[in-house]
Amino acid sequence: MDYFFSCDWGTSSFRLRLIQAKDLLVLGEIKHNRGISHTYKLWQQKVDSGLSRVDFYADIIKDEIRSLQQNLNIVTDGIPVLFSGMASSTIGMVDMPYKRLPFNPDGSDLKIELITGSTKVNPFVVISGAKTDCDVMRGEETKVVGCEMLLNNGAQEQMLVLPGTHPKHIVVKNNQVINFKTYMTGELFNLLSVNSILSASVEEGGDLDNIENQHCFMEGVAAGRNSNLLHATFMVRTNQVLKNIPPKQNSHYLSGLLIGAELGELKEDVPILLVSGALHAPLYRLACEQLHLNVYNEIDADLALIKGQQIIFSGFTGLY
Fold first, then answer.
1. 110: burial class by Cβ within 10 Å (0-12, 13-18, 19+)?
2. Which among 185, 204, 187 is positioned nearest to 284, based on CA atoms?
3. Which entry of 64, 116, 165, 288 is 20 to 30 Å from 278 by CA?
4. Residue 50 phi, psi dihedral angles, 5° rounding
């Protein structure tokens, strides 16, 4: 099999990519904001039609494949579609149980479902999420598998840090994923900067390469780690009122504050693999440097997802 479709279907976003298997080159891509939540609401409106949920979702994917195919000189019949994220959730294409930790970083014991009857032309492979007694993830487990070659298999604890709307800190030890925690960092930043009293005090768009912006960001990181977060958050307001700090610099302070609070529990002697995109990598890299955390390697989050899907599918089918 020379190609596969990589589908990352989140709660509020959708991304479908055609991947060349030999080098993981992205040949074509569709992305938009019609995520699983939007799709589930559409299906509920048509539930009386008798169309099953999996058939309804499959029809949407087939439409997306046709749209993507218009720009490609490749016959896509028979190419499998590999799903990570919310496709396996209670509002997804199929409701699959989580894999309880621990799980193997090679993905060999994750829960996987093959769907063929509804898809006709393209087989679907859905990868489910993972859980602890008090936390859940869908999608990040696939990225962990994509990072396997960068992990050591020893007894030393390692940490994978995955920034985003809901960042994950994932603990690997003795070649097992043994724990993780989810943080509200990105969502809280959006709520505070858009819908709170702080919205008048911050403005996005400042370049982190600017020395003043860096200074404000690092001040925020220090405050996030060392101060009461509820009090330090109000300092975003007083930064503007009493110190005349410009809104763009203040936005970096708020960002640093929340990231500093998120990273505050991490230990300096635990090696960190940063799994991030271009937006968050510079912020987390700088924050970890200031907090003397050991980032020993980095990988692009999209690449980790695609690689993880390939590894899981290969183990499941023997292809690639």
1. buried
2. 185
3. 64
4. 90, -5
Asked if residue 271 has a cis previous peptide bond (ω within 30° of 0), the answer is no
Q: From the first residue on, what is the mean pLDDT of each consecutive set of 10 residues in the chain (320 residues)?
A: 92 95 95 94 84 90 91 86 96 96 96 81 94 97 96 89 97 96 97 96 90 96 96 95 92 97 96 97 97 97 97 80
- Tell me which of 3.30.420.300, 3.50.50.60, 3.40.50.720, 3.30.499.10 is the CATH number of domain 3-138: 3.30.420.300
Q: Where in the chain is CATH 3.30.420.310?
A: 185-299
Strands 168-173 and 158-162: antiparallel
Cα–Cα nearest to 290, from 215, 212, 231 = 215
